[in-house]
Amino acid sequence: MSDEAKHTAVQDKATEAARQARLVEQAKLLTEALPYLQRYAGCDFVIKYGGHAMGDAAAMKAFTRDVVLLKQVGINPVVVHGGGPQIGKLLEQLKIKSEFVNGLRVTDAATADIVEMVLAGNINKQLVQGIQEAGGTAVGLCGKDARLITARKAGGKRAPNPDSMIEKVVDLGFVGEPDKVDPHILRLLSGSDIIPVIAPVGTGPDGMTYNINADTAAGAVAGALGARRFMLLTDVPGVYDKNREIIPEISFSAIDRMIADGTVTGGMIPKIETCRMAVQAGVEGAVIMDGRVPHAVLLELFTARGAGTLILRD
Fold first, then answer.
1. Cα 79 to Cα 46, 48, 270, 298, distances in angstroms
2. DSSP assignment letter at 123
3. Are 89 and 164 in contact (CB under 8 A)?
4. pLDDT tens digits, residue range 60-100?
């Protein structure tokens, strides 16, 4: 055998060894996932998917494949999505100005129409199509469908008054909060092969349409279902401690201490409170995790380490 042939044979042997090593690693991952598959079979999982992550086509494709996989292994995923960036982009194109108070969009009648069009229309159907292209079956819903989410008008938010040192209360317009969630339609779908995809738009007792914060809507849906997990996909890896390390698991009492001592601040506070309310309403555990990480949902559910911060009762 020539030196060149020997060299080729060595390369082929190394390539085959590497392939076998990858297969063994994949088999190990499957065996690691087995107890979690058994534990979660037949359980409801509510996943909040953010508007920022939806701007990345590759990330959305990976997410929809993961959701289909959950359904295929016997878990009942319910997806609630946001769409703030997409709403903002269309409003800008239409030259409709938006005012924000403490991070919440003031929604007038014109903006409410755009919000419903974007959330319950374009974005919702993109996710439905993505799930179906991944081999699943999905149906798009919003809070109006089957009286899924009845909204109440959100209370006015305090904002600095430029004309004085006294804060003023700003009416947020057609911004609502979940008042009642009727999970009947979701329970019907959980017994089928259909994955619900929910836009956070609801109807108030006055018959008006209200824009609901997607985190809040998802937490309320999870609580009404008594879901096994509420997974809040966001743009941070989880809850940090004072050393900027991710906390794998946190209790209610620890949350209170961390808010009081300033460890948890800003936009993380409403996310944690949404998770806490979901757990208080009957969810076993809520997870804050980075939706930008490929297959974050699978890493959280089917590995020992998980992929975010799990919030549980004391």
1. 6, 6, 20, 15
2. I
3. no
4. 898 999 999 999 999 999 999 988 778 878 878 887 776 77
- Token reading at 84: 């703030």
Pairing of strands 229-234, 44-49: parallel
Beta bridge partners of 138: 195
Facing residues of 4 across strands? none
| Helices and strands (DSSP H and E) totals, the chain | 10, 16
Length of the chain: 314
Token pair 């409403």 is at which residue? 270
- When pLDDT is cut at 50, 70 and 90, the band that residue 162 belongs to is very low
Residues 6+ apart with CB under 8 A from 191: none
Mean pLDDT, residues 258-283 = 92
Measured at the CA of 187, the angle between CA 286 and CA 219, to 5 degrees, comes to 25
Q: What's the predicted TM-score (pTM) here? A: 0.84
Tokens encoding 151: 């909204």
